[in-house]
């Protein structure tokens, strides 16, 4: 998949590169291997220490809970990644490129049996291949996708934004930005979304707000998107476009 173009609430097109099916399968296999090793090691250790009649329930619980919660817990505490996803450099994110919430991870996890276990992965594979946005059923329900974090060059055409003539700008101060500055803002935003560096996105928003002397209350990504949209609106209006 070359990439998916997602339209944000501010009507800005953001290009995300979905993780390939091969990378997702390899990540799944690696996570499964880790789980098998865990079960074997815990079982051997427990049987050596506990008598079966005394510790069978405790042993089952000790093995089952981490096994069942593996993907959910890792994605929550590793920002959308499991060890397998980390190794393959892929991550779960919201469809607009923002960070997924605990609720999103929970929805994906609850639908995991339908996607992967019951159908032996058939439902997930079909959803990913046919959906066009790299989403299995759990992703569709949660509004998430799995993207590749592998570095790619940002092309000039990927930074272009077409704004509707009916757009109502929120920050007229953007006219004080230069073409070079707005391009740098776009490039840094693209880099932050590609690497899921939300700290960089926050710093970009803060710096942009300082330059424009704007106090914003929205999320960093929403603010940056609005600034870009407003700038392009005024630029197109100046050149008689739209």
Descriptive notes:
The structure is a single chain. With 242 residues, the protein is mainly alpha-helical. The protein folds into 2 domains: 18-148, no CATH class; 156-238, no CATH class. The chain contains 10 helices and 4 strands. The chain has helices spanning 21-49, 52-77, 83-88, 102-110, 112-117, 122-131, 137-142, 179-195, 198-212, 220-238; strands at 4-7, 13-16, 90-94, 144-148. Strands 1-2 form a two-stranded antiparallel ribbon. It has a two-stranded antiparallel sheet with strand order 3-4. A hairpin with a 5-residue loop joins β1 (4-7) and β2 (13-16). The longest helix has 29 residues, at 21-49. The chain is elongated and about 75 Å long. It starts with a strand and ends with a helix.
């Amino acid at each position: 998949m070359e990439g998916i173009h997602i339209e944000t609430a501010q009507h800005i097109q953001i290009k995300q590169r979905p993780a390939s099916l091969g990378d997702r399968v390899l990540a799944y296999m690696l996570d499964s291997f880790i789980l098998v090793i865990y079960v074997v090691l815990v079982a051997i250790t427990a049987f050596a220490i506990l008598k079966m009649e005394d510790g069978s329930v405790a042993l089952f619980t000790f093995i089952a809970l981490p096994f069942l919660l593996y993907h959910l817990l890792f994605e929550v505490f590793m920002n959308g990644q499991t060890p397998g996803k980390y190794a393959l450099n892929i991550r779960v994110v919201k469809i607009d490129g923002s960070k997924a919430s605990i609720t999103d991870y929970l929805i994906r996890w609850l639908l995991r049996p339908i996607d992967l276990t019951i159908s032996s992965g058939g439902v997930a594979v079909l959803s990913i291949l046919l959906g066009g946005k790299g989403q299995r059923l759990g992703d569709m329900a949660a509004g998430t996708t799995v993207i590749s974090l592998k570095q790619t060059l940002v092309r000039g055409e990927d930074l272009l934004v077409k704004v509707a003539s009916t757009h109502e700008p929120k920050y007229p101060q953007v006219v004080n930005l230069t073409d070079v500055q707005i391009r740098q803002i776009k490039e840094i935003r693209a880099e932050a979304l590609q690497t899921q560096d939300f700290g960089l996105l926050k710093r970009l928003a803060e710096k942009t707000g300082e330059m424009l002397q704007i106090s914003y209350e929205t999320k960093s990504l929403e603010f940056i998107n609005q600034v870009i949209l407003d700038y392009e609106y005024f630029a197109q209006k100046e050149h008689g476009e739209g």
